[in-house]
Design a protein that fits this description.
With about 300 residues, the chain is of the alpha+beta class. The chain is about 20% helix and about 40% strand. The protein is built from 6 helices and 18 strands. The chain has helices at about 35-45, 75-90, 140-145, 175-180, 185-195, 235-245, and strands at about 1-10, 20-25, 45-50, 60-65, 70, 100-105, 110-115, 120-130, 130-135, 160-165, 170-175, 200-205, 215-220, 225-230, 255-260, 270-280, 280-290, 290-300.
């Protein structure tokens, strides 16, 4: 019988029981892919991560990321939350107010900056791959039906479009908070319209926000990954920032900063910071960051 040590952390929040939950297995050596998937299904959180030695010794760790139903090539809150645990458990070399580490994920190398406050990890930033803009979903009426909304609730001056910074999401602009709060996601419509589309992950957002200082209010649905709704999606907020820059949703500058609020309808309010740098219309850097709160730790016993 093997005892597997795990940590629980809430990601993209400044308070416990907010943000997005994550389980981190700090020693994934010797675990098969099948067992990793079973463990992720046992936790039944949006994601579970497994920390492994890096393939390249110049990097810090390899990280594998699993939803209850599938392995992901990259994800935001698992990257930020895993970095938080690595720092908290002194699994990386600490020193000063800022440390940069390099994590190997399915999409390649992910640089992560960890800022410290009073000796503890505080604001953590991950750099994401540059965006790839994919196809547009042209039938807004079908999207409205999927979300159980009137067609008038969709902001039709902006496209319903796939954007990826490692994992593709379909971005749907809505007009106001009333619309986004009213969503009742219809799986039957999703199966007909999006199951075989370029992305089955639906990210809805509006410029009307609940908190002062936020740029957008958002929700994310990923039934194909076994996630009915996600309270904080770092891998979606990078491409969200790219979408906002590409379509000039906000006045443009060379360095754009956004604050995205998510998870409020789930009772797990989350705050994600986004920084997009661009030059002459080309996006040159994508970063997503936030804070974490430690929840607890324990052991799994597996045969």
């Amino acid at each position: 019988m093997r005892k597997i040590h795990y940590h629980l952390v809430d990601v993209f929040t400044d308070r416990i029981f907010g943000g997005n939950q994550l389980a981190v297995i700090t020693n994934g050596r010797g675990l098969s892919s099948e067992l990793m998937q079973s463990i992720a299904k046992e936790f039944n959180l949006s994601e579970t991560t497994f920390v492994l030695p890096p393939k390249d010794s110049s990097n810090d760790y390899k990280v594998r990321i699993f939803t209850p139903y599938a392995e992901l090539p990259m994800a935001g809150h698992p990257t930020v939350g895993t970095a938080f645990i690595l720092a908290r458990e002194h699994m990386i070399e600490l020193g000063g107010e800022r440390v940069m580490i390099k994590l190997e994920e399915g999409v390649g190398l992910i640089p992560v900056d960890i800022n410290f406050k009073d000796g503890q990890p505080d604001l953590i930033w991950m750099q994401q791959p540059l965006p790839k803009f994919g196809p547009r979903f042209e039938d807004a009426s079908v999207m409205a039906e999927m979300l159980s909304l009137q067609l008038s609730a969709i902001e039709t001056d902006l496209p319903i479009e796939v954007v990826s910074c490692g994992l593709p999401f379909l971005f749907v602009p809505l007009k106001d908070l009333e619309a986004i709060r009213s969503i009742r996601f219809r799986l039957d419509v999703w199966e007909k319209a999006l199951k075989d589309f370029a992305s089955g992950q639906v990210f809805v957002f509006t410029k009307e926000t609940e908190r002062e200082g936020s740029s957008v209010h958002s929700r994310m649905f990923a039934p194909g990954l076994g996630v009915q709704e996600d309270p904080a999606t770092g891998s979606a907020n990078g491409p969200l920032g790219c979408y906002l820059v590409r379509h000039e949703v906000f006045p443009a500058s060379e360095r754009m900063e956004f604050t995205s609020e998510q998870g409020f309808e789930m009772g797990r309010p989350s705050i994600l910071k986004i920084v997009i740098e661009h030059d002459k219309g080309e996006i040159t850097r994508v970063r997503v960051g936030g804070q974490c709160r430690f929840v607890g730790e324990g052991y799994l016993e597996v045969g």
